[in-house]
Amino acid sequence: MGARTRLFGGAFVCGLPLYDPGRQSRGSEEEGFIEAVRDCDGIIVSTPGYHGSISGPIKNVLDLLEDTAGDAHPYLDGRAFGCIVTASGWQACGTTLVSLRLIAHALRAWPTPFGAVLNASTPLFEADGTCTEARTKGHLDIVAAQVVHFARWRRAGKAQAPHQSQQKSDGLRMG
Protein backbone atom coordinates (compact mmCIF):
# COMPACT_ATOMS: atom_id res chain seq x y z
CA MET A 1 0.00 0.00 0.00
CA GLY A 2 3.04 2.22 -0.22
CA ALA A 3 3.70 2.65 3.50
CA ARG A 4 7.01 1.90 5.15
CA THR A 5 6.53 -0.56 7.99
CA ARG A 6 8.48 -1.89 10.91
CA LEU A 7 7.55 -5.10 12.73
CA PHE A 8 7.99 -5.54 16.45
CA GLY A 9 7.14 -9.24 16.67
CA GLY A 10 6.45 -11.66 19.46
CA ALA A 11 10.08 -12.41 20.29
CA PHE A 12 10.81 -8.68 20.61
CA VAL A 13 7.72 -7.97 22.72
CA CYS A 14 8.30 -10.96 25.03
CA GLY A 15 11.97 -10.07 25.44
CA LEU A 16 11.33 -6.64 26.95
CA PRO A 17 11.73 -6.11 30.69
CA LEU A 18 8.63 -5.26 32.68
CA TYR A 19 7.75 -1.59 32.38
CA ASP A 20 8.91 0.39 35.40
CA PRO A 21 7.95 4.08 35.28
CA GLY A 22 10.58 4.90 37.90
CA ARG A 23 13.50 3.40 35.99
CA GLN A 24 15.74 6.25 34.82
CA SER A 25 17.04 4.58 31.67
CA ARG A 26 15.69 2.24 29.04
CA GLY A 27 17.42 -0.52 27.14
CA SER A 28 18.25 -0.11 23.47
CA GLU A 29 15.24 -2.24 22.45
CA GLU A 30 12.88 -0.10 24.50
CA GLU A 31 14.39 3.12 23.17
CA GLY A 32 14.18 1.83 19.61
CA PHE A 33 10.49 1.02 20.02
CA ILE A 34 9.71 4.40 21.58
CA GLU A 35 11.55 6.26 18.80
CA ALA A 36 9.79 4.23 16.10
CA VAL A 37 6.42 5.12 17.62
CA ARG A 38 7.37 8.78 17.89
CA ASP A 39 8.17 8.71 14.17
CA CYS A 40 5.12 6.80 12.93
CA ASP A 41 1.85 7.95 11.38
CA GLY A 42 -0.07 4.81 12.30
CA ILE A 43 0.22 1.57 14.19
CA ILE A 44 -1.33 -1.88 14.03
CA VAL A 45 -1.44 -3.86 17.25
CA SER A 46 -2.10 -7.58 17.16
CA THR A 47 -2.75 -9.43 20.40
CA PRO A 48 -3.96 -12.77 21.59
CA GLY A 49 -6.99 -12.64 23.83
CA TYR A 50 -6.58 -14.07 27.31
CA HIS A 51 -9.36 -13.97 29.90
CA GLY A 52 -11.20 -11.14 28.21
CA SER A 53 -8.30 -8.82 27.54
CA ILE A 54 -4.99 -8.32 25.76
CA SER A 55 -1.88 -10.28 26.67
CA GLY A 56 0.50 -9.05 29.35
CA PRO A 57 3.46 -8.62 26.98
CA ILE A 58 1.39 -6.44 24.61
CA LYS A 59 0.20 -4.30 27.53
CA ASN A 60 3.80 -4.04 28.72
CA VAL A 61 5.08 -2.71 25.38
CA LEU A 62 2.18 -0.24 25.18
CA ASP A 63 2.98 0.92 28.72
CA LEU A 64 6.37 2.07 27.38
CA LEU A 65 4.50 4.83 25.55
CA GLU A 66 4.17 6.57 28.91
CA ASP A 67 7.72 7.77 28.20
CA THR A 68 6.20 10.03 25.51
CA ALA A 69 3.75 11.72 27.91
CA GLY A 70 5.75 14.95 27.95
CA ASP A 71 6.29 15.07 24.18
CA ALA A 72 4.67 17.74 22.02
CA HIS A 73 2.93 14.80 20.28
CA PRO A 74 2.32 12.44 23.27
CA TYR A 75 1.41 8.77 23.18
CA LEU A 76 -0.29 7.98 19.84
CA ASP A 77 -2.04 11.33 19.61
CA GLY A 78 -4.02 11.62 16.38
CA ARG A 79 -2.57 8.49 14.81
CA ALA A 80 -4.38 5.61 13.17
CA PHE A 81 -4.58 2.47 15.31
CA GLY A 82 -5.47 -0.86 13.73
CA CYS A 83 -6.63 -3.71 15.96
CA ILE A 84 -6.13 -7.42 15.32
CA VAL A 85 -7.18 -10.02 17.89
CA THR A 86 -6.73 -13.78 17.92
CA ALA A 87 -8.44 -15.94 20.51
CA SER A 88 -9.87 -19.43 20.84
CA GLY A 89 -13.50 -18.37 20.54
CA TRP A 90 -15.65 -15.50 19.37
CA GLN A 91 -16.51 -14.23 22.86
CA ALA A 92 -12.85 -13.87 23.77
CA CYS A 93 -12.20 -12.16 20.43
CA GLY A 94 -14.95 -9.61 21.09
CA THR A 95 -14.02 -8.72 24.65
CA THR A 96 -10.34 -8.45 23.75
CA LEU A 97 -11.13 -6.17 20.79
CA VAL A 98 -13.11 -3.88 23.10
CA SER A 99 -10.18 -3.81 25.56
CA LEU A 100 -7.70 -2.98 22.79
CA ARG A 101 -9.92 -0.17 21.48
CA LEU A 102 -10.23 1.30 24.98
CA ILE A 103 -6.44 1.31 25.30
CA ALA A 104 -6.16 2.99 21.88
CA HIS A 105 -8.50 5.76 23.04
CA ALA A 106 -6.54 6.17 26.28
CA LEU A 107 -3.40 6.61 24.15
CA ARG A 108 -5.25 9.32 22.13
CA ALA A 109 -5.19 7.20 18.97
CA TRP A 110 -7.94 6.78 16.37
CA PRO A 111 -8.93 3.10 16.21
CA THR A 112 -9.97 2.06 12.73
CA PRO A 113 -13.66 1.35 12.20
CA PHE A 114 -12.89 -2.29 11.43
CA GLY A 115 -11.02 -4.50 13.86
CA ALA A 116 -10.02 -7.97 12.72
CA VAL A 117 -11.01 -10.79 15.06
CA LEU A 118 -9.55 -14.16 14.19
CA ASN A 119 -10.95 -17.25 15.87
CA ALA A 120 -7.90 -19.39 16.52
CA SER A 121 -9.92 -22.49 17.38
CA THR A 122 -9.19 -23.53 13.79
CA PRO A 123 -5.87 -23.07 11.96
CA LEU A 124 -5.49 -19.52 10.60
CA PHE A 125 -2.18 -19.75 8.77
CA GLU A 126 -0.15 -22.28 6.81
CA ALA A 127 3.42 -23.12 7.87
CA ASP A 128 4.72 -20.56 5.33
CA GLY A 129 2.59 -17.77 6.86
CA THR A 130 -0.14 -17.60 4.23
CA CYS A 131 -3.73 -17.36 5.42
CA THR A 132 -5.72 -20.57 5.37
CA GLU A 133 -8.79 -18.78 4.04
CA ALA A 134 -9.49 -15.74 1.91
CA ARG A 135 -11.81 -14.25 4.54
CA THR A 136 -8.99 -14.03 7.10
CA LYS A 137 -6.69 -12.37 4.57
CA GLY A 138 -9.49 -9.99 3.61
CA HIS A 139 -10.00 -8.92 7.22
CA LEU A 140 -6.30 -8.27 7.71
CA ASP A 141 -6.21 -6.31 4.45
CA ILE A 142 -9.13 -4.12 5.63
CA VAL A 143 -7.31 -3.19 8.85
CA ALA A 144 -4.11 -2.37 6.96
CA ALA A 145 -5.95 -0.31 4.33
CA GLN A 146 -7.87 1.67 6.94
CA VAL A 147 -4.70 2.50 8.90
CA VAL A 148 -2.84 3.58 5.76
CA HIS A 149 -5.75 5.62 4.40
CA PHE A 150 -6.40 7.40 7.71
CA ALA A 151 -2.69 8.18 8.10
CA ARG A 152 -2.61 9.65 4.60
CA TRP A 153 -5.71 11.77 5.23
CA ARG A 154 -4.23 13.01 8.50
CA ARG A 155 -0.91 13.85 6.83
CA ALA A 156 -2.73 15.70 4.03
CA GLY A 157 -4.68 17.68 6.63
CA LYS A 158 -1.49 18.62 8.45
CA ALA A 159 0.04 19.81 5.18
CA GLN A 160 -2.89 22.19 4.78
CA ALA A 161 -2.34 23.59 8.29
CA PRO A 162 1.11 25.26 8.20
CA HIS A 163 0.88 26.33 11.85
CA GLN A 164 1.36 22.73 12.99
CA SER A 165 4.94 22.16 14.12
CA GLN A 166 4.88 18.37 13.91
CA GLN A 167 4.73 18.18 10.10
CA LYS A 168 6.97 15.58 8.50
CA SER A 169 8.21 16.23 5.00
CA ASP A 170 9.11 12.68 4.00
CA GLY A 171 6.91 9.64 3.34
CA LEU A 172 4.22 7.95 5.36
CA ARG A 173 5.55 5.88 8.26
CA MET A 174 3.76 3.09 10.08
CA GLY A 175 4.68 1.58 13.42
Q: Which ranges are low-confidence, i.e. pLDDT below 50, for 5 or more consecutive residues?
A: 164-170
Shape: globular
Distance between the termini: 14 Å
Order of helices and strands: HHEEHEHEEH
In the CATH hierarchy, the architecture is 3-Layer(aba) Sandwich
Query: How helix-rich are the residues, as a percent range?
Result: 25-40%
Which structural class is indicated by helix and strand composition? Answer: alpha/beta
Q: Could you state the CATH homologous superfamily?
A: Flavodoxin domain
Could you give a short account of the major beta sheet? 5 strands, mixed
Number of strands: 5
In short:
The protein is 39% helix and 14% strand. With 175 residues, it is of the alpha/beta class. Strands 1, 2, 3, 4 and 5 form a five-stranded mixed β-sheet that branches.
Question: What does this protein look like?
Answer:
The structure is a single chain. With 175 residues, the protein is of the alpha/beta class. It has one domain (10-14, 28-123, 132-159): 3-Layer(aba) Sandwich (Rossmann fold), CATH 3.40.50.360. The protein has helices spanning 10-15, 28-38, 56-63, 90-106, 134-159; strands spanning 42-50, 53-54, 80-87, 110-111, 116-119. Strands 1, 2, 3, 4 and 5 form a 5-stranded mixed β-sheet that branches.
